[in-house]
From TrEMBL:
Protein family according to the UniProt entry: Belongs to the membrane fusion protein (MFP) (TC 8.A.1) family.
Source species of the chain: Citrobacter enshiensis
Bilayer-crossing regions: 9-30
Keyword Magnesium on entry: no
Lineage: Bacteria, Pseudomonadati, Pseudomonadota, Gammaproteobacteria, Enterobacterales
InterPro entries in the record: 3HB_CusB, Beta-barrel_RND_2, BSH_CusB, HMBD, MFP_Cation_Efflux, RND_pump_MFP
Residues of the Heavy metal binding domain: 52-79
Pfam family, one: Beta-barrel_RND_2
Protein name, per record: Efflux RND transporter periplasmic adaptor subunit
Positions of the CusB-like three alpha-helical bundle domain: 168-217
Amino acid sequence: MASYKLNNLALIFASMLVGGIISVGGYAYYSATHGTAEMTPAPEKEARKVLFWYDPMYPNTRFDKPGKSPFMDMDLVAKYADEEAGDASTPGVRIDPVQTQNLGLKTDAVRRGSLNYAQTFPANVSFNEYQFVIVQARSAGFIDKVYPLTVGDKIKKGTPLIELTIPDWVEAQSEYLLLRETGGTATQVEGILERLRLAGMPEEDIRRLTATRKIQTRFTLKAPIDGVITAFDLRTGMNIAKDNVVAKIQGMDPVWVAAAVPESVAWLIKDASQFALTVPAWPNKPFTIRKWSILPSLDATTRTLQLRLLVDNPDEALKPGMNAYLKLNTESEPMLLIPSKALIDTGKEQRVITVDSDGRFVPKRVWVFHESQGVTAIRSGLSEGEKVVSSGLFLIDSEANISGALDRMRAHTPADTSAPATHSH
């Protein structure tokens, strides 16, 4: 019985020993085929290579490590090697879409349309120099009467100014009557009358002489136009020489209105309907502009041209010396237009950032014609339908500087960088 139990114990022990050997072998095999793979860590994803760090506000200054910008209270931005993708000969850059989205990047299409121009210029009212007369006797004599008038008085055509006696006129009348009575030829008679005209005798007095055949000794000089007296200083009893000025009279309807306008807008002026005239003294009163002209001389200091308007003034509401305001509303012929905020002006060149079909931001040099009301007319450098960046522009321009895209753009620009010629307006 004891022998039987010993045999059973030996059999159990042997079984356990064999199982252990098998387990150890299996573990070793498993470890050899699987355990190494599990215990070896997977290689990390390759990190993006940083070329340098920079402050977008000062893109030409580069740093070799991250941190705070010494210029602005902001973190430096990394410039990655993979952002240099693309053909180096192409003047464009790619930018992280997250950055462009955060900056609210916006583009606008280059369109063809008319440039609207509206601006108000200070102006002033002056006499119309086309309506200016000088009254003279044109013969020596003396003044019998001066009518009560003085400088600044408004007078009508035909208003008497002075009465005077001129001996030469009296003598010529006597010769005329003598020829008429003695049978002088028509040529001789007409010659005497023409001499009286040249001597300044009023036509009204000559007609009276031929009608009445009586000598006149006193003559009245009258105003030849409506207007304002600007010179009048004769007195009763004075002698008068043939070259003495009796009066100077300046017309008041129409008047001139003058304004200085920039030479850059002169080509936009086409007709009088583009102007609106207002006067502080008569804020709600409309005025009719009869015609306009641009004087030939240019003020070299202010680069302005003198614009002169002929304005109707039947009620003489416009007084010479008054201040006025001239508003110009006009539009150009169709041309290429972009938002003015899309333009980058460095002082040496003007450029925009365009977006090509591959989503690259490409700087382009442009030549500007004119700007008005937030819209800029482009002379050359762009085509209709191209997209230009109008918001978030500074970051794009900084990236173009950093990546060398601007240098490549200039390399593609023709050697002759002068503005292309345009047709005259």
